Amino acid sequence: MSLKRVLGATTALTLCSAAAFAQDTTITIATVNNGDMIRMQGYTDQFTEETGIGVEWVTLEENVLRQRVTQDIATGGGQFDVMTIGTYEVPIWANQEWLAPLDDLPEDYNVDDLLPAVREALSVDGTLYAAPFYGESAMIMYRTDLAEEAGIDMPDSPTWSEVMSAAEAMTDKENDIYGICLRGKPGWGENMAFLTAMANSYGARWFDMDWKAQFDSEDWTATLNDYLTMMNEYGPPGASSNGFNENLSLFQQGRCGMWIDATVAAGFVTDPDESTVADSVGFAQFPNKEGVDNHGNWLWAWSLAVPASSDDTDAAKQFVAWATSQEYTQLVAEDEGWRAAPPGTRTSLYENEEYQEAAPFAEMTLESMNAVDTQAPSVQEIPYTGAQFVAIPEFQGIGTAVGQQFSAALAGQVDAETALSNAQTSTQREIDRAGYGEN
Amino acid sequence: MARAVSNQRKAINTAVAWIIALLIFFPILWTILTSFKTEAEAIADPPSFLFFNWTLDNYTTVQARSDYFGHFWNSVVISVGSTILGLIIAIPSAWAMAFVPGKQTKNVLMWMLSTKMLPPVGVLVPIYLIFRDVGLLDTRFGLVIVLMLINLPIIIWMLYSYFREIPGEILEAARMDGAGLRSEILYVLTPMAVPGIASTLLLNIILAWNEAFWTLTLTAANSAPLTAFIASYSSPEGLFYAKLSAASTMAIAPILIMGWFSQKQLVRGLTFGAVK
Question: Would you indicate the residue range of the signal peptide (chain A) (predicted)?
Answer without folding.
Answer: 1-22
